[in-house]
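note to self: dont lose this again. the chain is below, predicted strucutre after it. 90 aa total, dont forget to put it in the shared folder this time
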Amino acid sequence: MQERQVDVVNAKGLHLRAASELVKLTSSLPCKVSLSNGSIEVDGKSILGVAALGAANGSQVHVRCDGEQEDESLAKIADLFARGFYEDAP
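---
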């Protein structure tokens, strides 16, 4: 199991478009992905769960990957957060 805190850096936070981009990525990963924001923990492959986190700009989300390719998966998720959920951001 690999875990990391990531910052929500995009201006609108983890809104539906960002949640959709995140779930598109996590759904392609072979490991289990869990996200938490405070006391709320959700399945990182569920659009409704991710949207329910309510993670605003400047908040931190705890990401946990468990299973096959967890290191690589966690790095991909952290990179997406760092780019503000844009596919081709610098």
